[in-house]
């Protein structure tokens, strides 16, 4: 079961879908949100490119995406922990998904859960 959850294709697919979901979310904002929308579009393309790569290269890309999103997860989680105003923060269920996607891509990128047969 763990090998299926930590497979490269599943992690790449979830990262692609999660990044693509944020494109329409960010398109509803002001001028600054357009920059984020373009950034999520580029990250969607990078995550989708893992399907055309060999497994080792896909793991490296997923590790890079996971390491890149880790500071953002910590930053937004700090707002919930520090009893700050949650008006400008993402919803709590979304943060759970952010942590799940980030941790999955980190574990897949570090080759955790695979056997060396």
Describe the secondary-structure layout:
Blueprint (H helix, E strand, L loop, with lengths): L1 H4 L2 H19 L4 H18 L6 H27 L10 H18 L8
Helix pairs in contact: 2-3, 2-4, 2-5, 4-5
Written description of the protein model:
With 117 residues, the chain is an all-alpha fold. Helix content is 74%, strand content 0%. It contains five helices and no strands. The chain has helices at residues 2-5, 8-26, 31-48, 55-81, 92-109. The chain is globular. The mean pLDDT is 86.
Name the beta content range.
under 5%
What characterizes the major β-sheet? none
Mean pLDDT: 86
Per DSSP, the total helix count is 5
The helix content is: over 70%
* Structural class by secondary-structure content: mainly alpha
> Rounded to an integer, what's the Rg over CA atoms?
15 Å
The low-pLDDT segments are none
**Secondary structure tally: strands:** 0
Instruction: Write the H/E string, N to C.
Output: HHHHH
Coarse morphology: globular
Distance between the termini: 17 Å
């Amino acid at each position: 079961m763990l090998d299926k959850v930590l497979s490269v294709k599943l992690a790449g697919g979830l990262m692609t879908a999660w990044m693509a979901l944020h494109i329409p979310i960010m398109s509803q904002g002001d001028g600054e949100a357009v920059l984020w929308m373009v950034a999520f579009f580029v990250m969607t393309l990078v995550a989708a490119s893992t399907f055309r790569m060999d497994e080792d290269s896909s793991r490296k890309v997923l590790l890079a995406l996971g390491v890149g999103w880790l500071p953002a997860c910590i930053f937004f989680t700090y707002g919930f922990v520090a009893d700050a105003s949650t008006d400008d923060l993402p919803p709590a269920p979304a943060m759970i998904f952010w942590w799940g996607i980030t941790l999955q891509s980190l574990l897949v990128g570090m080759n955790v859960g695979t056997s060396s047969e």
